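Hello, quick one for you while I still have it in my head. A protein chain has come my way and I'm curious about its shape. I'm sending you its amino acid sequence along with the backbone structure tokens. I'd be grateful if you could look everything over and explain what you see. Here's the protein in full, and shout if anything looks odd to you:
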Amino acid sequence: MKKIFSKTPKLINIKNVNRTIIRLSFFTDRKEDDDVNSLIVTRILSMSNKKYKDIMSFNKRKEELSIMDLQVTKTNYNNFELINFTMTIPKKNIIEDLSYDDVFKFLKDVIYYPNTNKEGTMFSKKVFDIEKKYLKAKENDYPHSLKEYAYNEFMDFCD
């Protein structure tokens, strides 16, 4: 069974909710060898772009635009992966100076103008190294919680 996805935006209006959630999904071929790299990519995309090259300036701009949350996630399926850009902003007319044009331009810059070298073939070494250091530190401290520990023990038992 082949599922057909629509390219038409789906708008859902919920009463008594003071935020707007924008979600853009991109489908791409999945290469098993790139699973780890694509996870790093999603993290880098959510913390910098060509204009805002470090996390401090990136987050400051998000705050100026009243962006409440910005997440880049991916989900693997058999032969493709789905990359989602999800942004939460206040509902229209809640904040006087909220510019949807500026918010969408920022989101466009996150998606289409990542923090890469001139050729667009590699992410900024500085941002990549920060992310690599973070992931190594996180791995060294594993497991972080009782839940992670219990899951590890369960998987060892299953093996």
User: Anything to note?
Assistant: The chain has a mean pLDDT of 84. The beta strands are 19-29, 69-76, 80-90. The radius of gyration is 19 Å.
